[in-house]
Specification:
- It is elongated and about 45 Å long.
- With 147 residues, it is mainly alpha-helical.
- The chain has a single domain, classed as Cytochrome c/b562 (Four Helix Bundle (Hemerythrin (Met), subunit A), Up-down Bundle).
- The longest helix is centred in the first third of the chain and has 47 residues.
- α1 packs antiparallel against α2, α2 packs antiparallel against α4 and α4 packs antiparallel against α5.
């Protein structure tokens, strides 16, 4: 009887640990993709503020990163990833999954449109805010506020 009880406890702990590890892995994947997008957007952000000169290849590379990563992100919010690791995702994501998915789809569409449109600084100045504005909308609604 004691062996059966111990085996059951070990099985429960192993299952719980495996699920927690899965949560942390998914959280890490989405954090990595979002961090890559943030790093890619840094240069264009500085260009918008006219802190550095316009550079089309940098903008195009940033847009490529946004397109690739934003397309992957909707699938990285499974129900079992609400907690674990150091997630900054608010519970509202899982309550409004259709909205979150549509926001990522819009980000991809806006980034693709910008990729075609941006050929000079004037087009960039008009187009980049449409892409970057998508990020702020999600951050305000679905991410823990940074202090």
């Amino acid at each position: 009887m004691l062996r059966t009880l111990m085996a059951s406890i070990v099985l429960v702990l192993a299952t719980a640990t495996g699920a927690w590890t899965q949560n942390v892995d998914v959280i890490k994947q989405r954090q990595d993709l979002l961090e890559q997008m943030g790093k890619a957007a840094k240069g264009p952000g500085q260009m918008m503020k006219q802190e550095i000169p316009f550079d089309e290849p940098t903008v195009q590379a940033a847009l490529d990163t946004v397109i690739a990563n934003a397309a992957k992100l909707p699938g990285l919010f499974p129900e079992d990833s609400k907690t674990g690791g150091e997630t900054e995702a608010l519970p509202a994501i899982w309550e409004n999954k259709a909205d979150v998915t549509s926001r990522y789809e819009k980000l991809v569409a806006d980034a693709k449109a910008a990729k075609v449109a941006v050929s000079d600084e004037f087009e960039f100045m008009e187009t980049w805010p449409k892409v970057a504005g998508n990020c702020g909308g999600c951050h305000k609604k679905y991410r823990v506020e940074k202090k």
